[in-house]
Amino acid sequence: MDITLEQAEKISTAAKAKAIELGVPMNIAVVDAGANLKAFHRMDNAWLGSIDIAIRKAKTARYFDMETQELGKLSQPGEPLYQIEVSNGGLITFPGGIPLKAADGTVIGAIGVSGGLVDQDFQVASAGVVAFLANR
Known about the structure:
By secondary structure, this protein is an alpha+beta fold.
């Protein structure tokens, strides 16, 4: 199973709407089941440095099938995945990356968002997930 382009666009559009509501320009990446970029929005005035971060958040969420913030908790000093963020060409282990699951629980993609404070990134990514769940 894999996320469709139509689903990826709906996710990205919903996330963009939340970013507009928050007043924060964002970079929004949606990857497929293979962690390949499926859709991307770079809002006007979104930070250039956040392009890579958004994509890496989406890939990180897909590589490990968990929210990036959860992986972040496991990668702190003394935790079992300490320094995992240096693997796979560099991972992002703070909020803003969330896996996308089909109705049967199969991970079919992920969203990654960057451009605001980490709580804003999480809110925007979550809005994309809500749109996905409403239409899966």
